[in-house]
Amino acid sequence: MNTQPSLFRASLRAEAEKPAGPRPALVCFSHLKWGIVRQRPQNLLAEAARDYRVYFVEEPEVAQGPPHFRVKTAQSGVTVLTPVCDATCDVLREQRLLVEELQSLLDPSPLVHWYFTPMALDFSRHLPCDLRIYDIMQEPLALGVDQAKFAELEAELLACSHLVFAEGQIQVAAKARSHRHVHWVPGGVDTSHFARARSRIEDPSDQAEIPAPRVGFGGVIDDRIDLDLIASSAKALPSIHFVMIGPIARTHPDPLPQAPNIHWLGRKTYDELPGYMANWQAAWMPFALNDATRAVRPSETLELLAAGLRVTSTAVADLVETYGKKGLVSIADAQTIVPTLKTMLGIQPEGWRQAVDKELARQSRKETWDAMHHLMQAQLKPVQG
Predict the structure, then answer these.
(1) How far apart are CA 377 and CA 133, in angstroms?
(2) pLDDT tens digits for 356-385?
(3) What domains sit in the chain, N to C, each tagged with a CATH number?
(4) What is the pTM of this model?
(5) Helix (H) / strand (E) containing 218
């Protein structure tokens, strides 16, 4: 990601003057940071940037000086805007003023507001738009926010949204009672990027000395991860080495389990991930079964499958319905995890790879975006016509 000059108006003006001509604008409000780990927003909006001028408004950061947007441009062309506010100011008020300025600089072409969090209504509900989308990723417990406040704002957002997308089928069933345009749309996967792991890639230096067989995990390591399960599995399987990749956030109060065959390698860039996965023998997703994972659909699942890895997961409900029952992912609990992991390291079942590739083709990043864009255009047609 290349940092642009922090002159916000100049940045937007330059975008508007590009020879291709103006495209509709899409302003996204997200609870996730663009550069921390690649998830649903990054995958979908990278595709959206082909059809829209995309502005990604992150959570605010604290720094001295007057409030402003820090402006960066992602490789995909998405403009990433980070509100920067002094610790002494009214953050909501300053966010409101900043997004007002953003909207004042956009031309009057169709404008889309895309919400990954209802909490952003507190500083944006007054702004007009031609299409409002609520894209549901996680439950409030998984986001670490006030649940009562979240529920109140979510009800408001459902009432004023034209379209509702949900990553999990459980979420679709729950929200369909409140909105007539709720659509299940999986996060999508850049299949070609992760399929590189199916070829031989040199082992990264910090993984090269770890003995095989290796079972890997790549994703955010937070309070959704079952640390006890990791510890007990490593103890029961001392000859298997568990490679854990990803940033650590909102973890349990307990420290990460330590053992000679558990390796916490930290955050890796998106481009680095296939190199690590190419040198694993299998993968796992040791999620805790709690309120924080009740409706979560781990985006890592498709990435690991695209890498050609057999995957073992705990019984996250949406994952069981979508991948477990199809035989694409093996489901295990504390009692069955050890024999299941051993099986994962054995001979690949006949037809498994073909079934995986069929699912991947159905859920590619491009296919996912094209389906969403079709629904959006149907809503925008009266505005454009």
Answers:
(1) 12
(2) 999 998 888 888 899 999 999 999 876 655
(3) 2-188+365-384 (3.40.50.2000), 191-362 (3.40.50.2000)
(4) 0.79
(5) strand 214-218
